[in-house]
Amino acid sequence: MANLTHNLSMHSLDISQLVESRHDDVKRSIKRLSDRTIIELPPMAEIKTTTKPTKVYLFNGEQGKRDSYVVVAQLSPEFTARLVDRWQELEQKQTSPAELSRMEILTLAMQAEQENQQLKHKIEEDAPKVAFAKQVEVAPDAISVAQAAKILGTGQRRLFAKLRELKWVTRRNEPYQDKIEAGLLDVKLGSWQHPDHGLKQSVTALITGKGLSKLQLLLSIPASSPLLSSAQMSAHQMGEK
User: Fold this and answer.
1) C-alpha 221: how far from its chain's center?
2) Euclidean distance between the first and the last CA atom of the chain, given in angstroms as a whole number
3) 152 three-state secondary structure
């Protein structure tokens, strides 16, 4: 384990105390931000506490300082000033003066938070497309939303609105990956030629037999409905072929 001897360092337990959060929650947030490549994963260290040795993430140097601002901005933006004060306190222990003023550090923290939010938004926007690229086969029992709407006795637009409300599809009517993995939805990829922008990709949401049964329950449609029973039987037969 790393030895905590450098004055200009801060660990995750310090941050948890500054933002008044559980240390486990802070460590999970650090790991999540690292997995998203928003920050670099800090090295682990072990420190002594009043009860027992505790494993912490150690933030060192300018990169560590910058990443700590991102972590605090993600957890509790209102405590950013506390973090600034803590870093300045550590810097004042050094023989050389602090390189950044308090205002400059606050500005850096705000910029880091803006970058964090922009990257988070981009990740959320790109996630369906990344997942869809891996989805090359369509389940044999999958049907279009228009077909499903007819079976369920509703309109296509109304069913899409319900799917968005249930968080099955995005606002662009593209299925979420967790619903694909759960076997409720599938996706069909296609392409078309835009006159100005060239080849474009199209994403079409499909509803599986399992998804249709789930929607039947959510929409309170009787299981004895002849139309629904016929459609489910047809979907089951397609899956056996």
Assistant:
1) 33
2) 58
3) coil
CB neighbour burial string for 27-62, b if at least 16 within 10 angstroms, e if fewer: bebbeebbeeebbeebeebeeeeeeeeeebbbbbee
191: tokens are 């392409």
Report how far residue 175's alpha carbon sits from residue 122's, in angstroms, rounded to the nearest whole number. 17
Domain residue ranges in the chain: 9-126, 143-240
Of 154 and 202, the one with more pLDDT: 154
Question: What tens digit of pLDDT does each residue of 196-206 get?
Answer: 776 767 788 99
Q: Per the structure block, which two tokens stand in for 219?
A: 């929409």
Beta strands in 87-217 (DSSP E): 143-144, 185-194, 198-207
> Is 83 in contact with 106 (CB distance < 8 Å)?
no
| Residues 16, 9: Cα–Cα separation, whole Å | 15
Q: pLDDT, tens digit, for every residue of 123-136?
A: 777 666 555 444 43
